[in-house]
């Protein structure tokens, strides 16, 4: 285990061990991180363990999105000496560099636990306790088939991991890391005065609505441009906004975001400002935990970005919240109490075999919930969030197999996102009735196509006074549904057949969203277009899973054709060749 606070360099040794492994896997929380590891391994930019280099010998990449330390880990330039073929597999995208590649980079849900590895890296292990995705980390921890497993994350996960692995016989070695730069709480808050916001600041709010309200106010008062980062924004656009904020010449001097700013982004934040120390949880306002406050405030003063020992600062917008911030940062980490257990398809299939054929996923889930015996440190995922969807799928069960229902239930459609949930229900009904779902038909039947076209029209015309905020909302929803469609296209490829069209439309929507963010601004003037790749250098050549499949089909057809041609036995050396018979001819 490699544990420590933000900006402690805890992923340093894990990444180097992975780069040196004969076979290995990286499993992380975000597609953006999986993509970065995939690209850097293929380009040889991660210095393998056992290779001794000094900082003077390596031109380090300042755009690294991982928590690495003062020793050189990531090169800026391509180094073919260390290049390793690596494939990428995430829920919505697969990039195949080599079918025989021995390295894989993936999101944690896609970790192939049936495959043997020398080294596996599981990032952000503290997400074991996450109410929505924790089950994926638990599965990865207990089922990964590796000689050596590197777990990177917070100190909070150590007791829980020890308890879970107590019966496995695994040896656990805990490496603890200290923060590389100091983090200081300022003596005063902003006292509600947004004119005190300055270059290098990041204001953290807790809803998309608050983010845009704060952005507008700061731009009006201070005449500076603000980059934004929030959960509904696609990872690629969050990375682009981060690049704008990091570039001192872009004109984007301030970042306004939700608590989604932290994971997977390289941010040159000098000072974190908390708008509040509580947030709405969907039912009521609840105080932030000390762990959440530590995670957010710890983003300030990343090592090497403001001078090696410059450090970072944290404060609050309101004076009444400053004491809470100070107490939270001084408080020791509270250990995680329990890990989440997710209902995976094999479990559903096993339970369904002992139930009547008419039993749907809702009945199967209830059996799992009420009959299961769990490890004392495990808790089943919350059923209330998915119960309505279970009920809906049960209504369609006459036309859907249990396996189909399970796939649809797991599709990435957050329960709080009503539009995406509606689109999932529409997709499920279309699939149950026709066994095929075309992308544009889905958008039309979910009442999204008209709003999407109108949003694209509004952004393209770029007229002053138009409702760009409404256009952005429509584009975000469309993007969520496209991502959901891509996810389903990998699991039900015959039914969700428009994968190539979905990729093209996703790229178009992201471009329109980027333009829309540019237009929603209170500051006039031309701004620098900044399309900065996460990793520099030449692109990595790859094939999609569909291309690999198409080539395999083509080869099979060619082999079948070759096998159907007449062949003649070759005579042994020195033997007299016989003339083929008429029948053979």
Automatic annotation (TrEMBL):
GO molecular function: ATP binding; helicase activity; hydrolase activity
Keywords associated with the record: ATP-binding, Helicase, Hydrolase, Nucleotide-binding
Region (Disordered): 555-585
Domain called Helicase C-terminal: residue spans: 189-344
GO cellular component: mitochondrial degradosome
Compositional bias ranges of the Low complexity kind: 555-565
Biological processes per GO annotation: mitochondrial RNA 3'-end processing
InterPro entries recorded: DEXQc_SUV3, Helicase_C-like, P-loop_NTPase, RNA-DNA_Helicase, SUV3_C
Name of the featured protein: Helicase C-terminal domain-containing protein
Organism: Fomitopsis schrenkii (Brown rot fungus)
């Amino acid at each position: 285990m490699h544990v420590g606070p933000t900006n402690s360099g805890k992923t340093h040794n894990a990444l180097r061990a992975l780069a040196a492994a004969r076979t290995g896997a990286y499993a992380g929380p975000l597609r953006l991180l999986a993509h970065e590891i995939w690209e850097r391994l293929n380009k040889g930019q991660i210095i393998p363990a056992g290779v001794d280099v000094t900082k003077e010998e390596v031109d380090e990449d300042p755009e690294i999105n991982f928590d690495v330390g003062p020793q050189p880990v990531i090169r800026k330039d391509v180094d073919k000496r260390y290049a390793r073929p690596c494939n990428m597999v995430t829920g919505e995208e697969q990039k195949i560099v080599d079918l025989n590649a021995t390295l894989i980079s993936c999101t944690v849900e896609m970790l192939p636990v049936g495959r043997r590895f020398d080294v596996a890296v599981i990032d952000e292990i503290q997400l074991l306790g996450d109410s929505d995705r924790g089950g994926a980390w638990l599965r990865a921890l207990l089922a990964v088939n590796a000689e050596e497993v590197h777990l990177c994350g917070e100190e909070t996960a150590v007791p829980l991991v020890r308890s879970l692995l107590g019966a496995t016989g695994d040896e656990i070695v805990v490496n603890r890391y200290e923060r590389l730069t100091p983090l200081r709480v300022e003596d005063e808050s902003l006292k509600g005065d947004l004119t005190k916001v300055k270059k290098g600041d990041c204001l953290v709010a807790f809803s998309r609505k608050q983010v845009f309200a704060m952005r507008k106010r700061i731009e009006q008062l201070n005449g500076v441009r603000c980059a934004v980062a929030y959960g509904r924004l696609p990872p690629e656009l969050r990375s682009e906004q981060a690049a704008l904020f990091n570039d001192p010449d872009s004109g984007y001097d301030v970042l306004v975001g939700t608590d989604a700013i932290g994971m997977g982004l390289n941010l040159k934040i000098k000072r974190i400002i908390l708008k509040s120390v509580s947030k709405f949880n969907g039912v009521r306002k609840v105080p932030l935990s000390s762990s959440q406050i530590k995670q957010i405030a710890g983003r300030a003063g990343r090592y090497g970005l403001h001078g090696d020992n410059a450090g970072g600062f944290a404060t609050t917008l309101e004076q009444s919240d400053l004491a809470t911030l100070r107490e939270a940062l001084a408080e020791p980490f509270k250990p995680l109490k329990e890990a989440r257990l997710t209902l995976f398809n094999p479990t559903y299939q096993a339970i369904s075999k002992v139930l009547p054929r008419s039993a749907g996923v809702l009945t199967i889930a209830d059996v799992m919930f009420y009959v299961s015996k769990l490890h004392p440190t495990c808790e089943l995922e919350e059923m209330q969030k998915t119960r309505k969807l279970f009920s809906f799928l049960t209504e369609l069960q006459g036309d859907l197999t249990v396996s189909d229902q399970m796939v649809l239930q797991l599709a990435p459609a957050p329960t709080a996102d009503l539009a995406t949930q509606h689109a999932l229900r529409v997709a499920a009904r279309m699939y149950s009735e026709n066994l095929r779902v075309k992308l544009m038909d889905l958008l039309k039947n979910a009442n999204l196509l008209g709003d999407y076209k109108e949003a694209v029209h509004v952004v393209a015309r770029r007229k002053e006074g138009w409702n760009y905020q409404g256009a952005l909302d429509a584009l975000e929803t469309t993007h969520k549904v496209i991502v959901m469609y891509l996810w389903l296209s990998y699991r039900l490829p015959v039914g969700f057949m428009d994968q190539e069209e979905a990729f093209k439309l996703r790229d178009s929507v992201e471009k329109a969203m980027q333009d829309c963010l540019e237009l929603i601004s209170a500051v006039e003037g031309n701004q620098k277009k900044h399309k900065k790749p996460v990793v520099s250098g030449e692109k990595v050549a790859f094939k999609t899973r569909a291309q690999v499949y198409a080539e395999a089909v083509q080869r099979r057809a060619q082999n079948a054709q070759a096998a159907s041609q007449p062949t003649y036995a070759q005579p042994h050396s020195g033997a007299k060749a016989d003339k083929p018979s008429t029948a053979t001819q």
